[in-house]
């Protein structure tokens, strides 16, 4: 969609050259670089602020959205006998807002369930037939007491298999998702998964941005400047 194979190669090069993958508080997946160290010239940011991607994001929201998180995440293989889903590996809603749009790009092939593909239940969004499994949506501010995960066993019992979308694809597969609906991913049993994860919000959303406040995007198009909070 973006039509920039050189940029995609740079993103894959970040994967190949990153030695220290770390992110506080999430033991099952790791990030290539802290968000507040990502400059506007970094391939991660050039992807997140690409006008073609922002065209989709702004079309979804109907206004100029802001970028609040951008990174490459690594999910590591774990096929140990005691392996269980944890945190975002299980069904959950994202807390930032309602709706909240994310863009994902697979940087390696994700072709089977053991590769940890993203999964989604569209009918769990507001007004859908599975909304009742957890009727609260984005809180807008950071509050660890706010429940964002339904009862996983209940979801498995009540949600029909045909209502679950499993996103398989080769390296370079890009998809957008309103993560107000139940989703999960990264439950890797046979290989590691590498993926760009870009998070966008309405400009009035209360949830804080993880991006550095001094991004320099120069005379970029208005949509890029707005996404970088530099109108």
Question: What would your notes on this structure say?
Answer:
With 231 residues, the chain is of the alpha+beta class. The chain has one domain (5-227): Sandwich (Jelly Rolls). The chain is 19% helix and 19% strand. The protein has five helices and eight strands. It has helices at 5-17, 43-48, 51-61, 152-158, 222-227, and strands at residues 29-31, 66-75, 101-106, 118-121, 165-167, 174-178, 182-184, 193-201. It has a five-stranded antiparallel sheet with strand order 1-2-8-3-6. Strands 5-4-7 form a three-stranded antiparallel sheet, with no helix packed on it. The two termini are 26 Å apart. The model has no long low-confidence stretch (mean pLDDT 89).
Structural class: alpha+beta
Q: CATH H level: which superfamily? A: q2cbj1_9rhob like domain
CATH class annotation:
Mainly Beta
How many domain regions?
A: 1
CATH topology: Jelly Rolls
Key descriptive features of the protein:
5 helices; five-stranded antiparallel beta sheet; 231 residues; Jelly Rolls; alpha+beta; three-stranded antiparallel beta sheet
